[in-house]
Amino acid sequence: MFHSIDRQLYTLLVVNLWRDPVESMQIIAFWLWLERSGFNNAVTKMLSLPYILVNELADEALTCLNCISNHYPSSSPDSHDIPLIQSLMEKEIDLQFFHHNRVPAAQGIAKIVKEVCLRGLKDIMDSAIERNKTQNVMESQMVVPPMVHTGLNKMGLGGMVDMGYGESEVGQPWNREIEVPPDDRTMFVTFSKGYPVYEWEVREFFGRSYGDCIESLYMQEVEANEQSLFARIVFHSASTIEMILNGMGKAKFTINAKHVWARKFVPKRAKPLSATSPASSSSPGEMPASPHLPLSLS
Asked: Where do the record's region annotations for Disordered lie (predicted)?
């Protein structure tokens, strides 16, 4: 039996977040297998979250799927690589669980894809694939207009132009620092449930390692008796993120004996949809404009 909420989550992944339709079907099957294994209401909980966390949870699901596919050494898969999934579930769960159950998990997920997902999601998948093809064709046909030169070089004036109004901006463009948008200077960090990390600890950690590098820091807003599970850090310079990640897509740190995961923030903005796009409605999980994203994973 396939429920409408499962279709809603799949639509969110492939339409709103523009994730790969085939890969997203495996992610849905993964969540359904978890629910059948005793981890209840995973899909319902995810639909109540901001898009940014749904996207992060989908990435963690891929980590679990890789573990099930035996892409991790059998000796010690890192159980701390799925902090949001651990926070979402009401039972203890880690990568060791998926590694030890990789055979029944692989068989169960494959069966759900074939018998459930392909039947209940194929129309959305086909529409998303067609939309992606149309979008790719449109983007490939976009032509960047050539730069228009004023012909000053032909007049022997070169790039140095002085019209008597002081220093020319045309003459020395290197003097103006290119402004990098905040999203391109932002890092997304997550924390483990049960091990609260506070704003002052985050600021102290990065300040000690990289100096006065933080422009602003937005911790998840929670009630007084709850802990923040994620934060967004806007740095003064995008190069700070490159130094922190050191060429990796995701980095793990320990702040006062508590695990912290960091990755570059990738905002999921809506792309123009073609006429073949699946219909979607606004969701309570849509990323709000406010830098503070309310969330409860309990």
From this structure: 271-298
Closest to 295 measured CA to CA, from 222, 187, 195, 189: 222
What phi and psi, each to the nearest 5 degrees, are found at residue 166?
A: 95, -165
Q: What is the pTM of this model?
A: 0.68
Token pair 């099930």: residue: 68
Lowest mean pLDDT among 76-90, 167-181, 222-236: 167-181
282 Cβ neighbours under 8 A, 6+ residues apart = none
Residue 24: its H or E element: helix 21-36
Name, of 148-162, 173-187, 199-213, the range with top average pLDDT: 199-213
Kindly report each contact of residues 266-272 with a partner whose C-beta sits within 8 Å and lies 24 or more positions away, as own/partner: 266/55, 266/188, 267/52, 267/183, 268/16, 268/17, 268/18, 268/51, 268/52, 268/55, 270/16, 271/18, 271/135, 272/135
Confidence band of 249 (pLDDT split at 50, 70, 90)? confident
Q: What angle do CA 90, 190, 256 make, to 5 degrees?
A: 100
Which residues have C-beta within 8 Å of that of residue 8, sequence separation ≥ 6? 47, 283
Q: How many percent of the chain have pLDDT more than 90?
A: 47
Return the closest-CA partner of residue 189 out of 224, 214, 225: 214
187: helix, strand or coil: strand
Domains and CATH numbers, the chain: 4-138 (no CATH), 182-264 (3.30.70.330)
- The sign of the dihedral angle between the CA atoms of 188, 192, 196, 197 is negative
pLDDT reading at 159 higher than 60: no
